[in-house]
Amino acid sequence: MRRAAALWGERVAAHAGDPRYSVTVSAPTNQDALAVSRAIREVRRAAGALGPDRVTIEASDATGASYPLLLAEGDRVRLFQRTSRAGAGRDTMMGENGSVLTVKEVQEGGLVLATRDGKEGFVPWHGFRDRRSGQIRLSYGDVLTINTAQGITSDEHILAMPAGSRGVTLYAAHVGASRHRVASHIVGSLGAEAREVEDRRPVNAPKLTGQAALDAAWANVERNFGRAPVKDSALALLRRFQELSQKARNTFQEGMRRRQIRQKAALPETRLVRQAQENRQAQSLAPVLQQMSLNLEVQNRTAERLGAAPTSRAAISLEAVTLRLVAPQVAEGRMSYGAALDEVILSAVDDRRVRVLRGYAWNPVHQMHLPKPGGPVHAEPSPDSLMQKLDRAIASYDAGRPAALWAPMALRSRQGHPVPADQPRQSPGEPIGIRAQAPKTPAGRKVKGDGADHSAKTPRSRAPRRRR
């Protein structure tokens, strides 16, 4: 940046006696142009062509990048949009995108600007603001971007690349190096070019120094200037369309081949519908199981606080409840076996987590719960055992015994002993510990009523509900 600014000052000073002799500067990006422009401002201020800074505004360029902009009398500013001066009349236009104006006076409400033709006018701050973002679109005009400098012609031109030539292609290099009538100068960054060169060299290669590093840097600039991105033509677009069409045909044929293979193997054509159904079932079942787990946890904590059952466990585990819910769906074909097994495994994992939080002690060293000395050890749930439980539950449901879905080890009494599988289940409205029993009737005796056979030999007789 400083070298480009110094070169600009040298060339201007060398032709100070010719007011028509012009020296222009361009850079690849707006950021580079702003950095070099700030360096040129210092050169102009040292030469007495720039006054003291009057105001600092928050400005932005065309990309929306904001930066502080110091303005003084004598500054050259670059516009990013059509700008008009204040006042009425037909000739109020001061410039458009890319125009460079000279600051004649800095006022509190705006700037007094002058064009190359000598036209002056006051432009308020809101005249520089973008209509959409509201930002002041303004920058220094000492250095323009290569794209903006396409239409200018000067006696000497300087192409400054403070960030290196990585972003300059053949087309941009042609524009930046052909703005002159007398001489053209290229100023680059040895550090940026050297870093790009090192990125392409082997890892263990010796570092270049001296003239070898300088030659490699200029070779890298030549390499970047020689890049010519290929623009799509009508024929290239047609070839791309043909390639896409061929790829679509190949994909369709491959899909049909796979479909025929599945048909020969007597497999369903697709699993998308079934997979979507399983996903919906899993999503609908997940919140129910989660809510049931939370309810059981709240009930257990409440019972422990009240002291009603200090050593009791949950009457029904979440694993047993899950088996009760998913077994009928699997038996009736409304849910896949794999999805049901996943739900059972997740429920068993949640049960173990609750048991670990209750029976284990927190170890600050290992940052985890560990068994207490002499306390119970809760093993991880075994997928094989859970699969066997699910198979028994499905078989029980298929045999017409929904009541047998309650696992013998899941139902426990208040003392923690397992309840026999043939013992009648407790009705929801009964007090804890009291079991509903079928009325004892001698074998072969019929109960008076509507004439139906209510013999005690009937194995599917149900116990009457007790009233509260």
What this model shows, in words?
The structure is a single chain. By secondary structure, this protein is of the alpha/beta class. The protein has 10 helices and 15 strands. The strands form 4 sheets. A 7-stranded mixed beta sheet has the order 3-2-10-4-7-8-9. It has a 4-stranded parallel beta sheet with strand order 11-1-12-13. A two-stranded antiparallel ribbon has the order 5-6. The longest helix is centred in the middle third of the chain and has 35 residues. The protein is elongated and about 110 Å long. The protein starts with a helix and ends in a 70-residue tail after the last helix.
Q: Quick summary of this structure?
A:
With 468 residues, the protein is of the alpha/beta class. The chain is built from ten helices and 15 strands.
